Amino acid sequence: MRRIIATMIVLGSVTACNGELRSAAEATSDDRACAGLPSAEVDRAVGEVLANVEGVESIHDGSNGKAPPHLVGAVVQVRATRGMTSQYLGRVLQCHAAQRRAASCDAERSCALSLEGAQREVTTTPTGFAVTLRSRDAGIAGEIERRARTLAAGRIPAGAAASAP
Fold it and tell me: Is residue 88 part of a domain?
């Protein structure tokens, strides 16, 4: 009986909002990413990022000289906001990605910086931050660039983070 109850607790903790099962490691990682961050704070910070996108640059790889350069992702330039650090922004984006994974994110809304299968890195620039999104998968890299360009074109309203599923 104890084993059944323990199994139910574990399964309950790794079931995403949409009912899909996640691995225990993924659930633990997601829990760590969001530890101490209220959802409202994550939504507010992501909304600030979306409202302050300055531009986008494609990232191409092919430095070995043997193959033509191919798309591997994009860099989203974000203006600095009061109190934001690259470490905090990275943590907020990691939590946001975990929340979106659990809720089956709408690709056209606030999920542009939270694409499944993308590696994300936040660095500082003289006027803000560079959010680098990469993938070795050509399809994901193309989707990264498309979503990033949508952000830069201003087609995603700043409040979308709070209203996303």
Answer: yes
Instruction: Give the integer Cα–Cα distance in Å for 59 and 48.
Output: 24
State the helix-helix crossing angle for 24-34 and 2-13, rounded to 10 degrees. 60
Range of the domain at 67: 38-163
Domain count within the chain: 1
| pLDDT tens profile 36-92 | 999 999 989 988 998 999 999 999 997 666 778 899 999 999 999 999 999 999 999
Residue 33 included in any domain:
no
Question: Do residues 99 and 42 touch, judged by C-beta distance below 8 A?
Answer: yes
Burial letters 147-156, b for 16+ CB under 10 A, else e: bbbbbbeeeb
